[in-house]
Amino acid sequence: MPPKSNKNGDDPEEAVLQYLQRFNRPFGQNDIAVGLKDSVGKSAIAKALATLVEQQKVVDKPFGKTHVYWIAQNDDDMPPADELDAMETEVNDLKSTLPDLETAVAALRRDHAALVKTPTTPDLAGSVAAAREARDALQARLDRLRPVPSENGGPPPAPLVTSDMKADAEYERSLYRTMWQQRKKWCRDALSAITESMPKKPAQIMEELGFETDEMAGSAIENIPPPPPNFGKMRAAREAAAKAAAKAANRKRSGGAVGGEPAAKRRRKEE
Q1: Nearest-angstrom CA–CA distance, 228 and 236
Q2: How many CB atoms lie within 10 A of CB 13?
Q3: The pTM is what?
Q4: In terms of C-beta density within 10 A (0-12 exposed, 13-18 middle, 19 or more buried), how is residue 96 classed?
Q5: Which tens digit of pLDDT belongs to each residue from 149-178?
Q6: Facing residues of 59 across strands?
Q7: Can you tell me the distance from the alpha carbon of 2 to that of 8, in angstroms, rounded to the nearest whole number?
Q8: Element holding 63 (H helix, E strand)
Q9: For 74-110, how does the pLDDT look when each residue is reduced to its tens digit (9 = 90+)?
Q10: Helix, strand, coil distribution of the chain in percent, nearest 5
Q11: Using an 8 Å Cβ cutoff, are 165 and 172 in contact?
């Protein structure tokens, strides 16, 4: 009995044979069924393959329990030896040119990547306009800092910030931040000690009393840079210098008194 036709009405043998001829490589029975997208049943494929093997149109090669099928090769279609040699020579020539072509392709890819990163003409025009605006802003700032001759009637120059002024500002910032951190810790410890024996949590008591944390007020100490590592020594040195300056000023106001006696009175006694 010949194999039944597939769902589309085609001959299973013809469908399997055309499939093997189209791809011209080994296939298993399940692979053929998947390739035909189940248009031919597995039993019909098995019968069609058996028939094609008997007709020597398909080769069957068993591998254990598995069978592999491929289209029977016709030696009549094989080109002559000189044509095969010419084809092999052509293949070798193409293989020899492959490295040069790959190098050229890599260079073209690098050029393409560089061109993609390069801004377009409209983008470049916008960048130039932004750069000019930034330049004008910096030039205006520089003009404000430069001294202007009085005959030109320009505004007086802005005071320049010296390195000493900058150091003083940074010291004050570090000092106030340190004091802020200390007082924040004191408040936190005091609140913890007060609410230790209370049934309510500190957050509830703070809410009832209307207390606000720095974060609730929109301020955070973390947003201020911390003081330098040697800030303690800097603070001690500045405080010592301030005390020495105050002591010298007091001596100057007292007229250089020694032992509580003014200098003018001491000179009259000496005379």
Answers
A1: 14
A2: 23
A3: 0.37
A4: exposed
A5: 555 555 666 667 788 888 888 888 888 989
A6: 70
A7: 17
A8: strand 58-63
A9: 766 677 888 888 999 999 999 999 999 999 999 999 9
A10: 65, 5, 30
A11: no
